[in-house]
Design a protein that fits this description.
The chain is an alpha+beta fold. It is built from four helices and nine strands.
Length: 249
């Protein structure tokens, strides 16, 4: 049996367009107009509920009236995420005339409505990159296929965990700056330690030369001078290790 023709006028009527950057919330508006003389129930479904928040996602449009739907695309970590998902991102607007005898709550109406009386329209999704380049590659001419998912009263997907908002680009930039600052501080600290070791090494070498000269003149090398020599050799070794570590950092 052929479905009845959609009574509402959709604007836009073919596709919902979202323009990046997609690391932030991106909004698109959909206007539903009812040119008929009867009230019309509507609800919005999508094939990718984790990515969107829709408000209002259902309701009643009075005769000769209209309503605006806000569709909010939630942030993603990378535009490539949407590139791989775009072929299945579609929306469906289902509608049906309100009964003449009574005005039912929206949820109750959709539970009891005759499926043969339900009208629907499908919209594909287009992701436009910043400055508008490359968006022609984001169009999908295939017919929309299910499954479509409904939203709850808050506009979020039913039976789905809310999508976690990734860190903003500002937060990532702050982390990078902090890491760079820490790197600079560490390098400066290593440079200071290197200079101190060099000074101590030069002083010990000078003292060693004097002691060696005195020992040669006196013919005797005292025990404390031997210990001092060991200390000097240890300091030289420490300097070499410090220089090697400094080059590796």
């Amino acid at each position: 049996m052929t479905k009845p023709q959609q009574v509402l006028v959709l604007d836009p009527n073919n596709e919902l367009s979202f323009k990046g950057p997609f690391t932030e919330y991106v909004n698109a508006n959909l206007t539903l107009s009812n040119p008929s003389r009867k009230d019309v129930y509507f609800k919005v479904k999508t094939t990718a509920p984790k990515f969107y928040c829709v408000r209002p996602n259902s309701g009643v449009i009075k005769a000769n009236d209209k309503t605006q739907i806000n569709v909010m695309l939630q942030p993603v970590e990378s535009p490539e995420t949407l590139e791989s998902e775009r072929s299945r991102h579609k929306f469906m607007i289902q509608t049906a005339f309100a009964p003449d005898d009574e005005q039912l709550p929206v949820d109750q109406f959709w539970k009891n409505v005759d499926p043969t009386l339900v009208m629907d329209s499908k919209l594909r999704v287009v992701f436009q990159r910043p400055f508008g380049f490359g968006d022609e590659n984001n169009r999908d001419e295939t017919n929309a296929t299910g499954p479509f998912f409904s939203f709850n009263k808050t506009g979020e997907p039913k039976n789905e965990q809310p999508t976690q908002t990734p860190k903003s680009t500002e937060a990532n930039s702050g982390d990078i700056q902090l890491a760079l600052q820490r790197e600079v501080e560490l390098r400066m600290m290593y440079q200071d330690e290197k200079k101190n070791l060099e000074k101590e090494n030069y002083a010990l070498i000078d003292k060693l030369e004097k002691l060696t000269h005195n020992a040669a003149a006196g013919g005797v090398l005292q025990q404390d001078n031997v210990q001092l020599l060991h200390a000097i050799l240890f300091a030289v070794l420490a300097l070499m290790v410090g220089l090697i570590v400094g080059k590796l950092m």
